[in-house]
Input
Amino acid sequence: MALVPDPVYTVTYTFQDETGSKATTQAYIRQGIVIDDVIARANALAAALRNVSNAQLTGYTISRGWTEDAPAGAGAGSRVERKGRTIWLADTYKTRIDIPSVATGQVLPDGALNRNSVQFLALRAVLLTDFIGDFTDSRGVSLDALAAAYESYVRTTPRRQPTRKLS
Amino acid sequence: MWRLRVWFQDASGTRSYTGAWLRSPNETAIFAFVEALRGLSNAQITHVDISRRYPYTSQVPAGRDRGIGMFVQGAYNPDNPDVVADAFPMWVPESGLYAIRDLWGYPITARGFVSRAGYNMDGVLPEDGEPQSLDNEYPDDTDDYYLIAIRRNFWHRLLRDARMYNTLSFTLPDQQARRVRLDIRDLFRGIPMYEILQRLDTIINLLQDNAANTDEIEQFLLQIIAALGGP
Output
């Protein structure tokens, strides 16, 4: 059971013509190259593509993937609709990371997640202390604290959330 | 920022993902995050991906009739360099045959781009091979790569027809539906123009040499009709 990397970075270029229609095309760059070089190559091809097309090249997306080679199998009764919702602070802003099908052992009777379990402490360490500066909110501000952690369903409204969100 | 997504599947087969934002695609941090999630969820993790969009400042779009330039490049496994292991197709909107020629050599191959399966496209030189266009030439399957220029209007008509036929195939009895699906396949596969042109060349040669008889010409013409999809 391991995450196997795809052999390539995928670069998806987006075009827009004068009628507003959009189109994409893709190119691939081998794995094992430092990310700055990947970006440089993608940018070089963007310049070449811009020159051969009279549409507008609006941007490109670099993506990379890993696939589980031997998934262990989902646990009995698991449901991805049941989330473990964690809210993190980045400066004073909040960002959310959900845990699909949170294990029932992680949920306390009042609906809060057990923040002192070994598994939760491991997640907290990864996000806040082990890789300082790597995990951010969408603005790029580093995560610095946990604000809430509770069980939630897809259709849970704010009024239906557990009253106690931090144990 | 880089967007990280971790995909889950539960016992019912339903999929969902959770995401996080990263300043850089640090593989160690990504794997640690995935392992932490693995400990907290009883669904299975199926795959992980990360992406980032870069805006690009480009020219104002102009014109809409240059069609689509398409580039198909053979890719090779270094362990078996004589065999084409994969193909890299790339199409460029609002481009033409001679413009897309500029993508050969430096931008694609010398910069280390590979096919989707990760095979090399090394050893291709600018001007190597023969550019092809449905307008005036026909594909030569001995070339390492070829180019196709499809007029924009034709491309749109092709898609519209395919969609129309595909909808129709759902409403017909099995036998007619199969015929329609075969038509769609033929529509996308296209007419084997090089076979038709080769036979026309043969007919012309026979006529020029005065070596033709009616039966031979009739046979070649019937083959052309069959290749064009006739009865």
